[in-house]
Specification:
The chain is globular. The protein is built from two helices and seven strands. It has helices at residues 2-10, 85-88; strands at 22-23, 28-32, 37-44, 53-58, 61-66, 77-84, 97-98. Mean pLDDT is 87; it is low at 6-11.
Length: 110
Amino acid sequence: FRGRAAVAILLGLWPLPAAAEQVEALLGLSMDFDTQQITLQVVSTGCTRREDFRFDVSGDVLTVIRKERDACKAVPRKQAYTFPLGEVGIGPHTRFKIANPFIVNERLAR
């Protein structure tokens, strides 16, 4: 098994450990008052899941945090995830700012 694992790591077939939490670069963000939801557009290389994100609200500033890096190797693509405002930690009448950087081209995310 050791020899196979070493070969798999050298060939890039073995998944690398995920990086620590980091502020997510966003491709887009939209809010819907009627459904009281927020939708994030983020970069995925094949393994991103909704559960990979958490939210930090400090005063009037919202930060989207990615808990685990997407370690898959697919071509980067835009992926949307929707969250209820209550899960995000903001109310439907709350004014807030976004701390996250925005990018336009998903291929520049890495």
